[in-house]
TrEMBL record:
Annotated family: Belongs to the CCDC53 family.
Name by which UniProt lists this protein: WASH complex subunit 3
Biological-process GO terms, alphabetical: actin filament polymerization; exocytosis
Coiled coil start-end: none
Stored Pfam families: CCDC53
Source species of the chain: Pipa carvalhoi
Signal peptide interval: none
């Protein structure tokens, strides 16, 4: 648990953080994130742990049993 994935390291969120850095309007980024089912509030907390605890690039076959549906 010492290697907790953060928002900034998650490829789903990293691209939006980069958009902020290059000057894309934050409201446009937030709207796009909502359309993609991501939490736009995480733009403000790039060092926070990823809510689902899984990086998109990680192999998650061993954790499928933890999903309820």
């Amino acid at each position: 648990s010492e290697n907790i994935p953060t928002v900034a390291k998650d490829p789903r969120y990293a691209r939006y953080l980069k958009m902020v850095q290059v000057g894309v309007p934050v409201m446009a980024i937030r709207n796009k994130m909502i359309l993609e089912g991501l939490n736009p509030d995480l733009l403000d907390t790039p060092d926070a742990p990823v809510p689902d605890g899984q990086l998109e690039t990680e192999e998650s076959s061993d954790s499928e049993s933890s999903f309820s549906d």
